[in-house]
Design goal:
The protein is mainly β. The chain has strands spanning about 1-5, 10-15, 20-25, 45-50, 60, 65-70, 80-85, 90-95, 110-115, 120-130, 135, 140, 145, 160-165, 170-175, 180-185, 190-195, 205-210, 215-220, 225-230, 235-240, 250-255, 275, 280-290. It is about 0% helix and about 45% strand. Strand 2 (about 10-15) and strand 3 form a beta hairpin.
C-alpha cells in the first residue's frame, strides 16, 4: 500500500512493500525519483539489508545450514507494517518471521522512518537484534534520482561534487561483481567528477576514504542540485543501469561491501558493517536535500 506525506516544499510517497520511496515531488509537482521500470531497474530507492551487493556463490552458512542469497538482501521485497503516519512523518516496521528466517536465521526488528524537513528527506533505519545470539549484517541506501532533471538537459550537463578536496579509494571487482580484493586512488585532490553517458561502462563505482560530509549531483547551468549526506558511511557507491532507457543516477551510502572473491561462506567470517549483541540496536540516518 502507498502512503503520502507533505510539507511546504516536498511531497513524498512511500510503498509498504520494502518501505521504499517511490515518488518525491517538489512544489512545482516535478517528479524527482526514478519511476521503476522492470525492463531497466525495478526499484526507485530500496534499502539493502542484511547484505549489500552480491555474496560469493549466492549463498551463506549459519550453524552448518546453507541459505540462498540474492543480490542486496531481501528487506526491499517484503511488506512492512505502517506504525505512524502524520503530516510530515511516516514510520514502518518489519519483524522477523518464520518465512524471513528461511532467508536470514535471526530474530530482529527493522524500523524505517521518513521525515520531511524543509527541502530534505531524513530517512532513518533502526535495527534491533531480538535474537539470543550476536547478529551481524550489512546495510546500505540505494536512492535513484531522475537524471537529467528535465528534457532540456543531457547527462553531460551534470557533475558530481564533493564539499572538499578528496582522493577517493576505488574498490575493484571481477566480472561476477565480487570484489577482487584490490583498490586504488581514483584521482587525487578532486572536488568534481564530470558525468557522461558511458560513465558506468564498468558497472558500479565504489568509493571509500571520503572525508566529505556531502556528495552532490549538480546541474551546470543552474543552482539545481541534490545533496547526499555521507559523513556517517564508510563507503559510497554510484551507479546507473547501462541501457538506452536509463534516466536515473544513484548515490548510495553503504555501511558494508559486497563479498570478495575469496570470501568465506560462513556468515560470521564475512566483513559485515554492523555487529549487534542480543538486545542491541543500531541507528542509521541518510539525509538527502533537493534544491530544485
Amino acid at each position: 500500500m502507498q502512503y503520502t506525506i507533505k510539507n511546504t516544499f516536498l511531497t513524498l510517497t512511500v510503498d509498504s512493500l520494502g518501505a521504499q520511496m517511490i515518488s518525491l515531488k517538489n512544489n512545482n509537482n516535478e517528479e524527482m525519483l526514478w519511476q521503476s521500470d522492470k525492463s531497466v531497474w525495478a526499484y526507485s530507492a530500496p534499502v539493502l539489508f542484511p547484505w549489500v551487493g552480491r555474496l560469493k556463490d549466492g549463498k551463506f552458512i549459519v550453524d552448518g545450514e546453507e541459505y540462498p542469497a540474492g543480490n542486496h538482501g531481501f528487506i526491499r521485497n517484503v511488506e512492512h507494517t505502517l506504525v505512524i503516519k502524520e503530516d510530515n512523518i511516516i514510520i514502518f516496521e518489519y519483524k522477523a518471521t518464520a518465512e524471513s528466517k528461511k532467508k536470514f536465521p535471526y530474530n530482529f526488528v527493522f524500523r524505517t522512518s521518513f521525515v520531511l524537513s524543509g527541502h530534505s528527506v531524513h530517512h532513518k533505519i533502526d535495527v534491533t537484534n531480538t535474537d539470543t545470539r550476536r547478529m551481524d549484517f550489512g546495510l546500505g541506501f540505494h536512492p535513484g534520482f531522475r537524471l537529467p532533471f528535465d528534457d532540456k538537459h543531457t547527462t553531460e550537463d551534470y557533475y558530481i561534487e564533493f564539499d572538499s578536496p578528496q582522493s577517493p579509494v576505488e574498490w575493484l571487482y571481477s566480472e561476477n561483481l565480487l570484489l577482487d580484493g584490490s583498490n586504488r586512488i581514483y584521482k587525487e585532490n578532486i572536488t568534481q567528477i564530470p558525468l557522461k553517458d558511458n560513465f558506468f561502462e564498468n558497472d558500479t563505482l565504489i568509493f571509500s576514504g571520503l572525508t566529505a560530509k556531502t556528495v552532490s549531483v549538480v546541474e551546470k547551468d543552474s543552482n539545481r542540485r541534490i545533496d547526499f549526506d555521507v559523513q556517517d558511511f564508510p563507503y559510497v557507491a554510484m551507479w546507473t543501469a547501462k541501457t538506452p532507457k536509463t534516466k536515473f543516477f544513484c548515490v548510495e551510502p553503504w555501511l558494508s561491501l559486497p563479498d570478495k572473491e575469496d570470501a568465506s561462506h560462513q556468515w560470521d567470517k564475512k566483513d559485515h558493517g554492523v555487529h549487534l549483541a542480543p538486545g542491541e540496536a543500531c541507528h542509521v540516518l541518510s539525509r538527502v536535500k533537493v534544491t530544485r
